[in-house]
């Protein structure tokens, strides 16, 4: 009887299993992602948004037991008030409605605007406010929301009807145009509503241009261009404790205000005002400061009284020191003025590139807007009104210490080393200290590559020196500089580029700058910044487990030894991750969670130890989980993709082999969920540097930008192999061959891979290596090479158009790994360039390279394709017009995934050939016919 029951259960299980579907292109849009997850300050509620492909968003609020409290379609950007009584979010118009309006050529400004929703978590009621431009709530207190309304278009026919014939005649008789009412606009301002969330009382303030809440004190500030006799133009401060509204600045309706900022308490306010209503190019900005108890803001500085060679900047951020004794603002150099009398035909349009300029012209061009807004940190001592300039053109970058309370500021310049940076890849700088009270400047460190920062209390400057592979500290009081880790391995042990190894990073400082916590490959070390004495806090090396500090408070300035510290853990061998708690006083820790998952960074409730987090694996979607910092009891909050159980999925496992160089290697092997070891499967090899640490990443079906989707292909009967690559300086192509080829052989030796149907796919650096590999082997049936570099010589002299940087550094020192210039190692450039060996290619090649690629010059893809075309090799080039390194627009991503699947299905599974592969898509048919149709077999 037991045997019969077991047999029946087995049959039922097999029947149920066999009903699982394979993923198709049409199924991809069913998968949802989770965005904007947040937990209420009291930990009682969790809010998140479900994003279903290109469909409308869906916001949900659940309690700590996963009970649904509220949901709303088309909603996003949820936030809780600090008292946990309200949830606020925005609601969009239906996407199909927007699409329909766009088809009717409705202008962007006339499309439906967002709606603000205010949900009362206690009464379960909701208020909606339409046509929202923006909204703000206080950061550290509750009770109010301020929202700015967008313009509401009136019916034009109705407007005409309201103007009587008599009035029209009177207007025409006088020969004047009827002057309409003041309209909301960027210059005039928009109507703002200040709402008391408890009483629901609303105050409307018209023509507001700027508004802000104080962080901690109950004050609200705004600037307005005024409303005739009803509201004066100027800047106002409202005390929301007593509803007192004070006009702190009087100005006309064309005054422009910038950088409206409170001190944390709200007792002080700073702003920049431009009172000039003309179009003069050099704007006469003025700095104003108001303090509680004063009736008006005082003018502190203008362009005439500013330090010589500088002017008041409207772009420099205004901020107060934590103790509110200082105000920091920006000064700028004089504007470069245009001759506005010239017409286009008189303006010289030439670029002058100079060999010894610190920055390449293309970099300068990319940074024009940034440079036009460049400002230099300056301090105002509020008690004495003394102004001290901190950053200058000599030292343009400033780092303020101890939340603005410190008496010294760290300044720096990279200019002496900017020219060489284009080939060294090192951003070195000179550093100095500036006395906040006197402005005295004291140089302290020169030519330091790696970056120097101030400790939280500004007692030390510290950083990691790339050239020396050493953490250093500099005592600001004594002037003593100390190499903290000289001769010790706190640098990347696995560095495989011809460059200085980077550090593993730092966890931060303990209170009062007592100790600096830095990482080695596995562990966390506490280092005394004055003596260099070191203590290891964790014991990860023995088990090859990596410990990293998890910051739970975004405003945390130091690690508090009086509270437990949370670390994430990751085991290099089995790829398990988890959480670990450490008691700094007892110097003991405990593993809280560990397993075959990838865990996210927890998000902690503001008022207690409740957290939300996620875990994921190849088969498990990273749904939101609720717990506290013990992680003993977990509640699954979301269930984003219940449909996954209906589909044939896949499994992920680690595989090992040895390279042709004798190096032990690791990779990932993805098999279909219904895998049968007695069958033969087509295999696609996909790789990029090292990926095996991502064994437990979930890969939901999606229209990816540049690579195959593992779940999609596994569901449809493919095996995917992702090998890690170990590189040897000067020979990146050969390194890929030596690692990948024996890996493929090891997979074939398992017995279930169809050796005659193996494909290869990769993008960018992976795309280059694929271009190289097909010149060295005929093993692969078909390959897709995305944004490849077939010619390292021409690529070396190219520009990364996304940044304007020269590509030289990449070949000499970073990813391309040649290790020198073409005149130093000409044969390395030739041997690693597939363009010189295209006649050896016998594999069909699909190339995707877009004409707005800012990473890899588009002409590289063209060189590859035209070379193959010249030789008559089966090849295709996909160029998504106007797209960067990979297609971003939905329709283009979808198109790429369809063509990629059709390409591999044709070559690796014997599917019918799509029409676009047979005859292309002629230019006259572009955007009309896609050629997806399959030919008859």
Automatic annotation (TrEMBL):
<feature type="compositionally biased region" description="Basic residues">
    <location>
        <begin position="174"/>
        <end position="183"/>
    </location>
</feature>
<dbReference type="GO" id="GO:0004177">
    <property type="term" value="F:aminopeptidase activity"/>
</dbReference>
<feature type="region of interest" description="Disordered">
    <location>
        <begin position="159"/>
        <end position="186"/>
    </location>
</feature>
<dbReference type="GO" id="GO:0006508">
    <property type="term" value="P:proteolysis"/>
</dbReference>
<dbReference type="InterPro" id="IPR001375">
    <property type="entry name" value="Peptidase_S9_cat"/>
</dbReference>
<keyword id="KW-0645">Protease</keyword>
<dbReference type="Pfam" id="PF00326">
    <property type="entry name" value="Peptidase_S9"/>
</dbReference>
<feature type="compositionally biased region" description="Basic and acidic residues">
    <location>
        <begin position="159"/>
        <end position="173"/>
    </location>
</feature>
<protein>
    <submittedName>
        <fullName>Dipeptidyl aminopeptidase/acylaminoacyl peptidase</fullName>
    </submittedName>
</protein>
<keyword id="KW-0031">Aminopeptidase</keyword>
<dbReference type="InterPro" id="IPR011042">
    <property type="entry name" value="6-blade_b-propeller_TolB-like"/>
</dbReference>
<dbReference type="InterPro" id="IPR029058">
    <property type="entry name" value="AB_hydrolase_fold"/>
</dbReference>
<keyword id="KW-0378">Hydrolase</keyword>
<dbReference type="GO" id="GO:0004252">
    <property type="term" value="F:serine-type endopeptidase activity"/>
</dbReference>
<feature type="domain" description="Peptidase S9 prolyl oligopeptidase catalytic">
    <location>
        <begin position="740"/>
        <end position="909"/>
    </location>
</feature>
